[in-house]
Amino acid sequence: MSSVAAANKQLPMVGMGQIVMVTQPEVARAVLGSCIGVTLYHPRARVGAMAHIVLPRSSGRTGPPGKFVNTAVPHMIELLEDAGAKVFGMVAKLAGGANMFKATGPMQVGTANIAAVRELLSELGIRIAGEHLGGAKGRRVTFDPVTGDVIVEIAGETQVVL
To answer: What total number of domains does the chain contain?
Structure first.
């Protein structure tokens, strides 16, 4: 069982557009809809970061680095490298990207976020070690850098550990 699942305390939240770096015994939690929760984790260093990414690309728009896939992932790598982790050996786990309003059409933010993060991680050579993406319901995710576990909870469903 994850040390997060065993802990029954108030956990810090990662808000929209934020990136939080965590080291043991800290944990991070986010509530996601169409946003993507990306965790980068280095198993040997036991250090990781979680981003609550809102949109796929900045396209010239300003905002905190965690708001866009194309700025969040490089910033997360920089934070982890500053903490002594090498990009070689980092793994990613992804959650979110839901179609919250069951709408159809050419621009689904959740779907676009999923595609953008998968593409960028592939370009950077970072392996996706687990994912829980899409659907029509929001998720609560908790990241534990001690184990690397990402616990995904959806109301009315069995929790999943990535």
So the answer is: 1
Residue 105 CA: distances (Å) to CA of 34, 55, 67, 108: 15, 17, 23, 7
CB within 8 Å of 35: residues ≥ 6 apart: 16, 52, 53, 54, 96, 97, 113
Residues in the chain: 162
The pTM of the full predicted model, rounded to 2 decimals, is 0.88
pLDDT of 78-136, one tens digit each? 999 999 999 999 999 999 999 876 666 556 788 999 999 999 999 999 999 999 999 98
- Mean pLDDT to the nearest integer, 54-62: 91
Full domain range(s) for residue 30: 3-161
Instruction: Pick the catalytic residue from 4, 22, 28, 35.
Output: 35
CB 98 within 8 A of CB 137: yes
Residue 37's closest CA among 61, 64, 17?
Answer: 17
Residue 48 belongs to domain with CATH number: 3.30.1330.200
As a whole number, the mean pLDDT across the chain is: 88
Q: Does residue 159 carry a catalytic annotation? A: no
Q: Check: CB of residue 24 under 8 Å from CB of residue 46.
A: yes
